[in-house]
Amino acid sequence: MEGLSDRLESLKADFAAVASQFEMTWTLSPASRKKRLAIFVSKEDHCLLELLWQWQAGDLDADIAVIVSNHPDMKPIADSFGVPYHYIPVTADTKAEAERRQIETVAASQADVIILARYMQILSPWFIEHYRNRIINIHHSFLPAFVGGKPYAQAYNRGVKLIGATAHYVTEELDGGPIIEQDVQRVSHRDNAGDLKRIGRHIERIVLARAVVWHVEDRILVHANKTVVFN
């Protein structure tokens, strides 16, 4: 709508009275302002590449502001897309300092949301609190099954016939945050653990990309530990 940006503050003030009456928690986000993404990644590139491809194609209506990693491996990919890359190593002894540097990097990039594109580190409660309901993770199983590490090995050992992936907001509970999107694919006894991982990588990249698109388009409401997604 023409002139809407000039009226944004007055609209907020007008709606505040209604929101107060009904004790509403609310935000007003102009669709004309693209959200800025900070992507965290470790050594696997499939989820990162999917986001970059969708962004390059115009299917992800956002700005990828920065890529942060605890390894140097993904820098050539970031460079090829012209996205700033920050290598911040993390060890048990340096985790607190590394997270402080990560927060500073994200803040400097003016990112609105953090995407964990197979970032293989557990974030501290201190870090999470800075971006409550603004950190999206992809977990390589159909939660709540196979929480934690090596879910494909867990799935293979259990002999499952379906494997999946789950995109969710990050909370202090490991892999227990509000679920945004999930998908599955059928497998059989003929598939070994390596096959499950290969099949699962495709599911992961699609599920994460869907969740990110829905977040940047403000289609998601979080209530308690659940989400409502407006498709």
Polypeptide structure, described:
The chain is 39% helix and 22% strand. The chain is of the alpha/beta class and 231 residues long. It has a single domain, classed as Rossmann fold, CATH 3.40.50.170. The longest helix has 24 residues, at 193-216.
Instruction: Output the number of helix runs.
Output: 7
User: In percent, how much strand structure appears in the residues?
Assistant: 15-25%
Radius of gyration: 19 Å
**How far apart are the first and last residues' alpha carbons, in Å?**
22 Å
As a percent range, the share of helical residues equals: 25-40%
Strand order of the largest sheet: 3-2-1-4-5-6-7
When the domains are counted, the total is: 1
Query: What summary fits the major beta sheet?
Result: 7 strands, mixed
β-strand number: 9
Could you name the CATH homologous superfamily?
Formyl transferase, N-terminal domain
Low-confidence stretches: none
Shape designation:
globular
- CATH architecture descriptor text: 3-Layer(aba) Sandwich
Q: What CATH first level would be assigned?
A: Alpha Beta
CATH topology call: Rossmann fold
Give me the strand/helix succession: HEHEHEHEHEHEEHEE
- Secondary structure category: alpha/beta
The overall average pLDDT, rounded, is 94
